[in-house]
């Protein structure tokens, strides 16, 4: 057996590396690039002075309720593929306390916003958004008004009257990527450009809607799943008091000799990718998925009222047929036929 030699006290001394041999400290990474710590000032405790380093950690939770249609689920999956900074979760049961449940899910998933897809009465697709940072919630109806002509008239009692002209469409009307089959295409996970029409600066509720849409659809720059490219654009425009959404690919030349200079926007083209949908704002709440009502759309008409008018219009046709039969019977009773003298001629 070989005996182990005892360590001497001199061997326990650890040689420290010299300062010249140590590797230089790595600079800190910011949204504007790599910077040395000497160039970045320390944070000040005073709240009036903003921090020089800002990191966008926006995350969106996307979930839905049970009993939604397959088309509405495909629309939700299209939005999930367009938002690399979102997180998916299981379906949430529609109960009276689903607002508190959604707020708890947002905190558990470390998110700041939530998109909740809900189906009411099996025909009304509802889109609920809540922001934990802003403390606001918005109730939106996913629909479009392509084939509907709605007129409002004030009655003597001060109520609204509604009349629908033309053929009634089937609710809901939205188009997913699979249905459209458009020629546009862009990189999955790339950061989009957000464009808003000038109407969003008109009223206060449109400004709030614009801010919440920016928080949801704006992809953070340093997100681990995001690509550092801008090859598509999200377009939000207001028409007929509805928010219309379109997704376009930014198409440019790919040859090295045909590279566009800065500002050469005249040679760029936009190709639509999808999906298409329209948002009709219903209410704005003072809290996330609940709270006092801050704004209510005065021009909103529930799809239940439109379906009731459609049934009433169909029931009018049946009532006309019943009245026509009644009038015919009354006419026959008031004008009986005279007996025919040749009726019994061929009986013999």
UniProtKB/TrEMBL annotation:
It is found in: Nucleus, Nucleolus. Residues 1-28, 312-348 are annotated as: Disordered. InterPro entries: Brix, BRX1. Residues 58-290 form the Brix domain. Keywords: Nucleus, Ribosome biogenesis. Its main location: nucleus. GO terms for biological process: ribosomal large subunit assembly; rRNA processing. This is Brix domain-containing protein. It comes from Vigna mungo (Black gram).
């Amino acid at each position: 057996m070989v005996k182990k030699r005892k360590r001497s006290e001199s061997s326990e001394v650890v040689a420290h590396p010299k300062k010249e041999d140590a590797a230089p400290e790595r600079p800190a990474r910011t949204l504007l690039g790599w910077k040395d710590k000497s160039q970045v000032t320390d944070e000040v405790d005073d709240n009036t002075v903003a921090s020089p380093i800002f990191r966008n950690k926006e995350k969106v939770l996307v979930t839905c309720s049970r009993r939604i249609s397959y088309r509405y689920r495909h629309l939700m999956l299209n939005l999930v593929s367009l938002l690399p900074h979102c997180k998916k979760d299981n379906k949430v049961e529609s109960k009276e306390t689903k607002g508190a449940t959604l707020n708890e899910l947002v905190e558990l998933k470390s998110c700041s916003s939530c998109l909740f897809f809900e189906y009411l009465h099996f025909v009304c697709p509802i889109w609920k958004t809540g922001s934990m940072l802003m403390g606001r919630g918005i109730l939106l109806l996913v629909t479009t008004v392509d084939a509907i002509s709605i007129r409002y008239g004030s009655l003597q009692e001060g109520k609204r009257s509604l009349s629908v002209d033309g053929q009634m469409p089937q609710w809901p009307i939205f188009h997913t990527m699979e249905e459209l089959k458009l020629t546009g295409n862009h990189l999955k996970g790339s950061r989009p450009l957000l464009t808003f029409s000038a109407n969003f600066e008109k009223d206060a509720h449109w400004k709030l809607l614009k801010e919440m849409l920016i928080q949801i659809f704006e992809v953070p720059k340093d997100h681990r799943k995001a690509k550092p490219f801008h090859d598509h654009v999200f377009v939000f425009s207001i028409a007929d008091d509805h928010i219309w959404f379109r997704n376009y690919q930014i198409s440019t030349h790919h040859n090295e000799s045909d590279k566009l200079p800065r500002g050469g926007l005249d040679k760029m083209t936009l190709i639509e990718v999808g999906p298409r949908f329209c948002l009709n704002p219903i209410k704005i709440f003072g809290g996330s998925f609940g709270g006092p009502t801050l704004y209510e759309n005065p021009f909103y008409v529930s799809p239940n009222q439109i379906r009731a008018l459609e049934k009433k219009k169909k029931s009018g046709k049946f009532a006309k047929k019943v009245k026509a039969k009644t009038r015919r019977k009354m006419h026959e009773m008031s004008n009986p036929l005279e007996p025919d003298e040749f009726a019994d001629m061929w009986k013999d």
